[in-house]
Amino acid sequence: MNPVIKSQTRSFQDENGLVGLSPSEAFEAYTIYAVLAGQLSYPVNAIDAHLKGDEFGLDGVAILIEGKLAQDTDDAAALLADVFDPDVEFIFFQSKTSSSYDYGDIGKFFDGIEQFINGELAGESNQLDDLIAVKDLIYEQAVGRRNPGIRIYYATTGNYDQPDKIESLLERRMRTLRGLSIFDTSRMHLEMLGAEKLQSFYRSAKRSSKAKIEFPRQTALPKNSKVEQGYVGYIAASEIVKMVQVTNEVGDIIGINRYVFFDNVRDYNERSPLNQKISSTLTSDEGADFVFRNNGVTVIAKSIHRTADEFTIEDFQIVNGCQTTNIIFQNRNKVSDVFVPFRLIGTNNDDFISSIIVGTNSQNQIKSEQFIALLPFVKNLEEYCRSTDESIRLFIERRESQYQHETLERSRIISLPILMKAVSATILGQPNRSARDYKKLFKDNEKNLFTERSDVQIYHAIAYLYYKLEFLWRNTRIDASLKIYRFYILWAAYREATENADLLKPMNSNKSSVYADKIIEFAKDEENFKSAIERYGIGFERVISAFPSENREKLRDSIRSDSAFIKMSEELFPPKSPGAESIDS
Q1: Does an H or E element contain 92, and which?
Q2: Which of 200, 466, 513, 579 is spaced 20 to 30 Å from 520 by Cα?
Q3: How far is 92 from 63, CA to CA, in rounded Å?
Q4: What CA–CA distances, in Å, run from 36 to 43, 61, 197, 326, 409?
């Protein structure tokens, strides 16, 4: 294997806690990360797109809805909710550690793609069955004004020199996919990757957002204890392009950096009437009016260095003006005389950043977790999780991509939606409902989630339990078929570790610490945890066999039912005999 690729793959494994993968499996996961995070700059967990079995022709499938990974129909339904014209993209991966491009392997890759599309790969693995169900749901419910896009990546550790025979094969197979008339032909992308491109993509994924801009027409904002520097004024549209462009190693623009957007570039819809009208302003003789008509762009940077009118900004986010920025980028060759209202704020205060995000987007729909991020308990929880012993340290992600440029084990980052689902399954005892949309979960349980009487020790312990469960799956140490019971497993482990204590009720810190330690010790004992999961799995399967489950979706529906949950409780935790003691007595 190319020594640089080998080194990058090893670093990728270390950062993601991947200790049980073979070299070929690690390279497959590395390739998916390099493309999704580096070339396309999607802030998603690339590990979740890696197929863990021996699925025919495919090493990875990423289905992106509004820029988020949909791993099953629960994910898809939540992401499609209230979206009139969803942006959907299918991305397929095949990776080989050899340096050659094999005609037969490439043909098999395209066979796998076509069989995924027509459903012939059903039964290859539970993971693939879930993705096929997502595909079916998208075409049943979500194809409105435009068809999904498709991206295809075939990677080796060599370099592709476009042999005629393989080029003819690629042209023929892409023509077949176009002929299906189910993809947006303007968004069909095929790329043969080699060592050079993979190295470049991987470095791009690791690179901190940094830009140098000219901002001569500015005024300093009033002093504020939470702000190191602040400026307001207007800026040339070409400087906006500098902030978001992604370039290759020779300086050519190859895309837009999605990581710099607070709410991600998925919120940009070039087909909306408003955005088309704004675009027409730039392409007509009205470009000079843009600065008067537009609300502008707000940028928050962790670091600002100023030399005269040149500003170097690092680790920055565009927290308002996503639509404006994307319109300018799409029309970057036509904005030479266009100016944009602009605010630049330098601060490291995460609470202040969140308040700016909410304030500057008050006219738009704000994601629920942004309001949750401002709750005092969540701030305390983040600080507590970061301060724990290194072996159990976790990082609560209060803002999307908050830790993108920090050197830490990525698997230890727990997002607020995931934490909410884990807490719902355990403390609230709702594992049958926890897989559903986190926004509804929070709305239904707002009085009991992330409140002032919640305990950071217990929440940290539950987050650690989730981390260890995912660690076991990520390293293929437990049966992947049990993933459909993910939240039931958390619930059962929590009940067993705490002997079903009611941790919603207020208790002193010492008692909380006892329960938290029991949950953590249960999860840390890997062999015991694995044995427990296997035992739970047998119980789950025994119960669910009495419910309708002729396919994965019927099985999922059964698992989510209240009646199945009641049966699971009776199966795994039958009532204790009178007089039995518990830890809570």
Answers
A1: strand 88-95
A2: 579
A3: 9
A4: 8, 11, 13, 19, 18
- Average pLDDT of the chain is 87
Measured between alpha carbons, how far is 280 from 287 in angstroms, rounded to an integer? 9
Rounded Cα distance, 451 and 249, in Å:
48
Amino acid code (one letter) for 304: I
Neighbours of 390 (CB within 10 A): 5
Distance CA 448, CA 423 (A): 10
Cα first-last separation, the chain? 60
Nearest to 298 by CA among 333, 323, 270: 323
Instruction: Identify residue 208 by its one-letter amino acid code.
Output: S
Provide the residue count of the chain.
585
How does pLDDT run across 182-229, given as a tens digit for each residue? Answer: 999 999 999 999 999 999 899 888 776 789 999 999 999 999 999 999
**CB neighbour list of residue 304: distance below 8 Å, 6 or more residues apart:** 228, 229, 311, 312, 313, 314, 344, 346
| Cβ pair 178, 188 in contact under 8 A | yes
d(CA 233, CA 328): 18
Question: Does domain 3-206 fall into CATH 3.40.50?
Answer: no
Domain assignments of the chain as residue spans, ordered by start: 3-206, 210-365, 369-572
pLDDT tens track for 405-461: 677 888 899 998 899 999 999 999 999 999 877 777 888 887 888 888 889 999 999
Backbone angles phi, psi at 520, to 5 degrees: -65, -45
pLDDT value of residue 1? 78
Q: Tell me if the pTM is above 0.85.
A: no
| Inter-CA distances, 286 with 140, 280, 281, 540, Å | 42, 8, 5, 64
Amino acid at 168: S
Per-residue pLDDT band for 365 (boundaries 50, 70, 90) equals: low
Cβ neighbour number for residue 330 with a 10 Å cutoff: 15
- For helices 486-498 and 456-474, give the axis angle rounded to 10 degrees: 130
